[in-house]
Amino acid sequence: MSSVKKASSALISVFHKDGLEPIVKKFQELGITIYSTGGTEKFITDLGIDVVPVEDVTSYPSILGGRVKTLHPKVFGGILNRQDNESDVAQLAEFEIPQIDIVIVDLYPFEKTVASGASEQDIIEKIDIGGISLIRAAAKNFKDVTCVS
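-> structure tokens emitted (149 positions)
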């Protein structure tokens, strides 16, 4: 028997913003805390919706030209913790890691970039590391985290 779980937070980091507005508006209506980065954070903020920058969670800025934003224990701990494991829950509290219940992420348009005849450097920058890592973490903890990709 499955039970319905109420989400309290979401991490949103997407390249394509189409269709995102009604989702974040609904999250705001439901009182779901939204964490985000870069362009997604700006998009949500521009809608007048509260968003917590991931940098505020990690106490670390986006570095290496945006290559490293979400790759941090305070992000992945919030996704990978087992909510029915007392030790995991205690570590979240000890290290001030927020629980992340929903992960909404897409990947950079790698194939489209290659097909466009872009430069090697542009192609390399479209190899997604953080996005696929977020998807894998949410999938690993599917009992506690919903992943939308």
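The first strand starts at residue 9 and ends at 13.
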